[in-house]
Amino acid sequence: MNRNDPEPERYYDWMLWKLRQEEHQVQEMTTEEMYKLEIAEMQKTIHYLQTRVKELNDAVLQLQEQKDR
């Protein structure tokens, strides 16, 4: 929390203040935390690609079966 930015009383002022506080917290992320987030995103991408390869392989096998009939 930034001491130079006290918490306001009015609702909309408070919402803007809270947004500033959250942005400040995001900027204070450590290198390790950034790496963890990046790795998690990469793992999601890898999982999607593995699933997509399986779907495409199944489609190829189905087309081969239709061709062989």
Describe the structure.
- This protein has 69 residues and is mostly helical.
- The chain has one domain.
- It is 80% helix and 0% strand.
- The protein has helices spanning 11-27, 31-68.
- The longest helix has 38 residues, at 31-68.
- The termini are far apart.
Number of helices: 2
- Terminal CA distance reads 69 Å
Spans of 5+ residues with little confidence (pLDDT < 50)?
Answer: none
Sum up the overall morphology in one term: elongated
Please tell me the total number of domains: 1
Q: Gyration radius, to the nearest Å?
A: 24 Å
H/E element order: HH
Helix content: over 70%
Mean pLDDT, nearest integer? 85
Structural class: mainly alpha
What about the largest sheet? none
**Fraction of residues in β-strands:** under 5%
Instruction: Give the tally of β-strands.
Output: 0
Key attributes of the depicted protein:
69 residues, mainly alpha, elongated, 2 helices, single chain, 0% strand
Secondary structure: elements and pairs:
Layout: H1 11-27, H2 31-68
Give a concise summary.
The protein has 69 residues and is an all-alpha fold.
